[in-house]
């Protein structure tokens, strides 16, 4: 038993929630996408639950079924989080920003400005972008992976160097002596990469946490691990099983070690989608109500995952003993074993789907205790340092999580009852950093 | 006599004010540059005075005498204005953004997100950037003027097209019918320029004013007039005399006419720097207290403007009758005639300098009535539709302007007593616009 606590972040995907039809729940304002009052409400609810940060994924192009579902991200992650900064006090803001399509000087400037004005609560989820629809919005071809990651290394190095270019003791602001800044402590960085470059300096002083926290996210390719190991203090993962997460977390920690850092300084954050309800049945009904037709359409996919055919006419019946006997979890898809486990509990095919077995992250449906059990099991198995939680419907799903799950975690001693501090670094449990990490060569 | 009222904006240059040493006034927190509480306080003070907008110039590089004065702009104009959006209700936010060094898709997205979350109060001061120090921060050479302006045309056209790409009636959000967006009304723009391009669409709905207001700023070169005439609803000027301003304003209006627009739809905004004090003498003393050494160093420059030599030992004496007789305003510098006029009033050379005769804009020093007279004279002479005011020291200079100048303008019937509306367009008096202006070809 250690003192270590798990860390929670909340995924702010679109204003509505993780369910495809969250936007059309009667208690939800369907105009929430453009309503920053709602963002504020959600941020404050998460802050009540001592969440360490809000995390905004981003995909700067229109995709998916926008006729029946929503735009899959906030209007603009950084702008929208900035707007709520002054209405919260402790929660951090981890906004996704592309190393491929944003200028390093602009990234450095905007994120550090948010860090200073939020008193040390900003984080940058630095990602590369390979989607052709996004590239087209910037009028550029998709760069190959080697180029994207080379540019990412250059961009992050430039950003961190710019962050450190106003030295920590540069700002004299001595009115009587008439000295504002010591200009010798505000020096160019003069970094020239193959794809991006900047002279600097950046004229923004340190925040209460020094500089924004670098995150990254995605699958653990060698390219991404090289980014994570060298620069990131948070790794936003997409994983479905404890085994997968443990292996992946170890890769991330090893990458940090190889880069010369202490692996405890990078927090591995697994995803979780939540439906908190008094019973599993009520939770499933809520999910079917707002995503039913989408779930139903996934029936053939479920059959493929289990290696069996499921008759659409029998969607409301449990799998037969024969089906269960011949079902095999597809080894290429880690979600299959979860689907099989749920099916063996005797749920109908529709209810198996309503358990979220075909989604971006593991899903827990039911009372708070089930959620707490999942988080504790993963945490104590070394599968994650923390979790980013996407509630089914933000409007009441955040409060339900805070009221029904958080107290159990606190009682079990694995989650803080008060914020450890007022900065994102303090609440993540990662050390202060200013400028590039001198251990990384 | 018409109903037309003048419009006021406030220049937010750095957090401290227009005086070189504003940061070291004892009643000013020298850490204001990083203190967004102060930005909020200043914005609210301006809003109390029915200012239509805050205007943030921008120079994204370190320049000037930062050892004794300040960084010459906010940490990040757009981020800092966004942070105060929710603590104000009517005032607009005109942030400078470079067409040269920002991606049009990012500009379109960030400004429209601010526009939506501020309920229609955003403006974009679209400028080209030619300074080598700024270019170096982006790792690029300085582009020549033709290229910069070609890129500016392309960037603004792309931004406006993206703003219009979510059609005004695209957002159905009918929960019962399960229709979120009409995807046929969210269409790509597919603009391909020589320097920038974007496919779109941009997934942000209209704000209460449609889309952000485009401003531009600078000297009236043919290149800039072509930008202003086609796209801008506000023109931020640097002019020193009524004659100069009238001529320039006419050029701007003519450029709008030539582009197929109504010239009344572009507001010409002249600059003004202010020191409001019970008497001129007290105002001059305030200015000397916080910029004295800088003013004194300008003595040779003052001599050159007047075509005479001024002995530094006689800086505290009025010009002699002989000096005044031989003094001639340098025809190449419009500030010279103002300097000569002040000198003829019998002020010492030091006090002439303290009148701000060598500064970025005309300066008025003294009681509120003098300021009101200046504004009224320019306004009624057709030299400006409005003014952007930079107080000497924000901390008390905005309140002084609001308490001592605004009521006089209101009594004279040339300034609104209430905000005309809640959007920037309403308060500027420019029409709603969505997407590109169809009259401009």
Automatic annotation (TrEMBL), chains A, B:
Binding site for FMN: 58, 96, 149, 221
This protein's UniProt keywords: Flavoprotein, FMN, Monooxygenase, Oxidoreductase
Ubl conjugation keyword on record: no
Luciferase-like domain boundaries: 29-383
UniProt-listed Gene3D superfamilies: Luciferase-like domain
Domain of life, per lineage: Bacteria
InterPro entries on file: Diverse_substr_monoxygenases (IPR051260), Luciferase-like_dom (IPR011251), Luciferase-like_sf (IPR036661), NTA_MOA (IPR016215)
Molecular function terms from GO: monooxygenase activity; oxidoreductase activity, acting on paired donors, with incorporation or reduction of molecular oxygen
Protein family (similarity comment): Belongs to the NtaA/SnaA/DszA monooxygenase family.
NCBIfam families noted in UniProt: FMN_nitrolo (TIGR03860)
The protein's name in its UniProt record: FMN-dependent oxidoreductase, nitrilotriacetate monooxygenase family
Native species: Trujillonella endophytica
């Amino acid at each position: 038993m250690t003192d270590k606590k798990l860390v929670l972040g909340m995924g702010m995907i679109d204003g509505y929630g993780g369910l495809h039809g969250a936007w059309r729940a009667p208690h939800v304002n369907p105009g929430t996408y453009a309503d920053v009052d709602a963002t504020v409400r959600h941020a404050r609810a998460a802050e009540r639950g001592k969440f360490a940060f809000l995390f905004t994924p981003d995909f700067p192009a229109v995709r998916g079924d926008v006729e029946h579902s929503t735009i899959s991200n906030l209007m603009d992650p950084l702008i929208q989080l900035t707007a709520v900064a002054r209405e919260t006090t402790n929660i951090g803001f981890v906004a996704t920003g592309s190393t491929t399509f944003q200028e390093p000087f602009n990234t450095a400037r905007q994120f550090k400005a948010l860090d200073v004005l939020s008193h040390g609560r900003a984080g940058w989820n630095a990602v590369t972008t390979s989607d052709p629809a996004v590239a087209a919005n910037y009028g550029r071809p998709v760069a190959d992976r080697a180029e994207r990651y080379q540019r990412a290394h250059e961009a992050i190095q430039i950003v961190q160097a710019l962050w450190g270019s106003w030295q920590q003791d540069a700002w004299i602001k001595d009115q009587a002596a008439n000295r504002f800044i010591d200009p010798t402590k505000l020096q160019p960085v003069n970094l020239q990469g193959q794809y991006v470059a900047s002279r600097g300096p950046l004229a923004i002083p340190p925040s209460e946490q020094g500089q924004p926290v670098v995150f990254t996210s995605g699958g653990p390719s060698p390219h991404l691990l090289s980014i994570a190991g060298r620069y990131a203090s948070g790794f936003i993962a997409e994983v479905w099983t404890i085994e997968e997460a443990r292996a992946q977390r170890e890769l991330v920690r090893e990458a940090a070690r190889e880069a010369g850092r202490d692996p405890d300084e990078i927090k591995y954050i697994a995803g979780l989608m939540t439906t908190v309800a008094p019973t599993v049945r009520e939770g499933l009904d809520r999910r079917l109500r707002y995503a039913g037709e989408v779930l139903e359409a996934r029936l053939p996919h479920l059959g493929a995952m289990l290696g069996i055919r499921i008759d659409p006419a029998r969607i409301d019946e449990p799998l037969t003993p024969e089906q269960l006997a011949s079902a095999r979890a597809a080894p290429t898809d880690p979600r299959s074993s979860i689907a099989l486990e749920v099916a063996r509990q005797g749920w109908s095919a529709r209810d198996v789907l309503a358990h979220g077995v075909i989604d971006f992250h593991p899903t827990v449906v039911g009372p708070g205790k089930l959620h707490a059990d999942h988080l504790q099991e993963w945490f104590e198995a070394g599968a994650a340092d923390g979790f980013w939680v996407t509630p089914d419907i933000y409007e009441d799903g955040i409060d339900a999580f805070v009221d029904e799950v958080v107290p159990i975690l606190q009682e079990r001693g694995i989650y803080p009852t008060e914020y450890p501090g007022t900065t994102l670094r303090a609440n993540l449990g990662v050390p202060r950093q200013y400028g590039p990490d001198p251990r990384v060569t």
